[in-house]
Amino acid sequence: MPTKTIGVREEVYERLRARKRDDESFTDLIDRLIDESEGDWRDGFGSLSTEEADSLREAAAASRERFDESAGDRQTAAIDRLAGSSGDDQSGDEGRTDDGADTDDADGGRSA
Which of 4, 38, 7 has its CA nearest to residue 16? Predict the structure, then answer.
């Protein structure tokens, strides 16, 4: 029977050797491992029951809705912050970030 030679990384070879039975060749081992697998994983890929598909659609729609709401909130907050920094701020915090650090120090506040 014709044979083929294949190359495998050393760590793969060691894993195969560890699973190989004493009375078995590497060809027999690979054949056994293939037979032990439960078919081709691609056979069922993408197939959901109607109930699973509906549940997935509902979860995706809810996730999109939560994202849209939070994105809108973040956008509104950003606009409010920008509007507040337009120079009309009378709070006395001009030149300061939210944590109170000076923003107008050219040297980053290192000088005294």
Answer: 7
Indicate the pLDDT class of residue 103, thresholds 50, 70 and 90. Answer: low
Domain residue limits at 25: 8-39
> Identity (one letter) of the amino acid at 52?
E
Domain count, the chain: 2
Cα angle for residues 67, 68, 70 (degrees, 5° grid): 65
pLDDT > 70? residue 2: yes
Q: Would you state the structure tokens that stand for residue 61, as one six-digit string? A: 């729609």
What's the CA gap between 93 and 85, in Å, rounded?
A: 10
Same domain, yes or no, for 55 and 77?
yes
Query: Could you tell me if residue 37 is left (phi over 0), alpha (psi between -120 and 50 degrees) or otherwise beta?
Result: beta
Are 104 and 95 in contact by the 8 Å Cβ rule? The answer is: yes
